[in-house]
Amino acid sequence: MKIALVALLLAFIVTFCLAIPIIRYLRKKKLGQNILEYVDFHNSKQGTPTMGGLIFLLGLSIVAIIFYNDNSFLMFMTLLVTLGYGLIGFLDDFIKLKFNRNLGLTPIQKIIGQGGLALIVALFCYNSPLVPNAIIVPFSFYEIEIGAWIIPIVFFLYLAVSNAVNLTDGLDGLASSVSAIAILSFGILIFLYSSWLYNYGAGSVIIGELNSLVLISFAFVGCLLAFLMFNTNKAKIFMGDVGSLAIGGFINSVAVFSGLYLYLPFICLMFVITTISVILQVFYYKKTKKRLFLMAPLHHHFEKKGVTENKIVVCYSIISILISVVCIYFTI
């Protein structure tokens, strides 16, 4: 755990130092966000530099390379998958900026990219001896073997989580703060699981691989905390799809590679609620031609009701912290 805390601190310093010149460069190149017409109350944010996810992805990559060792293959795979989803987001952001429009990749192109990468990871999970082909029951660490069912489960989770984070990225600091809490929670849960396996005589390779997931989780928390220094209201930079899709890929990777993915609905509750609000809005409108919420996702509904951005972010973060504390408490 001490080395993980060192990784967090180092990641914070590295990412903070990277952020300043990168933000200046993006501002100089006028790579600013185009605000959607229906989110007219965010017009003041027009032109704010975007693609800030590059900052914490670069910081995470540097720290992961520094701490890489012989028992860090799952850490390497987590970084690789994270960068893969970040690349899809980067292409989406780049097209938007290049052609000065709100639409980057089409929904079909995004799904193909995300789904293709998800399928590769699912097949890796099924064939790798380092990844349990089992569901680990929350609060007990009891394993239920699922065999080949891990392929469709992992495939679905990658699509769901990456898009859920993307939908939540709508307010200054919202996705960054909720994601940092979720990733820290998974880091702690994986540490508890690793300690439990150690007490029951698990092999050193598995323990080492799980500990590498703890390390990269804490490192990413440090990256996101540094990014939040520039992303809180009023944001100097947005993470863009390159950031939100990458975060979704990361959260899912540490959950899936550790076998703790049944914790996702709890730890990522605010992402789940955000996604459900969009689904309900679309379904309700198709049925009644009326809106269930003033605007979806849910955080925009609260904005329309007059709640400030900062208050929404704080409330989302507090709820995330409380749920995480409960999950960790009943897991110990």
In percent terms, what proportion of residues is strand?
Answer: under 5%
Class computed from helices, strands and strand pairing: mainly alpha
Classify the helix fraction into a percent range. over 70%
Total DSSP helices:
12
Shape: globular
Tell me about the largest β-sheet.
2 strands, antiparallel
Could you name the ranges where pLDDT drops below 50 across 5 or more consecutive residues?
none
Strand order of the largest sheet: 1-2
Number of strands: 2
Order of SSEs, N→C? Answer: HHHHEEHHHHHHHH
Describe this structure in words.
The chain has 332 residues and is mainly α. The protein has one domain (2-265). 70% of the residues lie in helices and 2% in strands. The chain has twelve helices and two strands. A two-stranded antiparallel ribbon has the order 1-2. A hairpin with a 4-residue loop joins strand 1 and strand 2 (142-145). Helix 6 (174-199) runs antiparallel to helix 7 (204-231). The chain is globular and about 55 Å long. The protein starts with a helix and ends with a helix. The model has no long low-confidence stretch (mean pLDDT 91).
How would you summarize this macromolecular structure in one to three sentences?
With about 325 residues, the chain is an all-alpha fold. It is built from twelve helices and two strands. Helix 3 (about 75-100) packs parallel to helix 7 (about 205-230), helix 4 (about 105-125) crosses helix 5 (about 150-170) and helix 5 (about 150-170) runs antiparallel to helix 8.
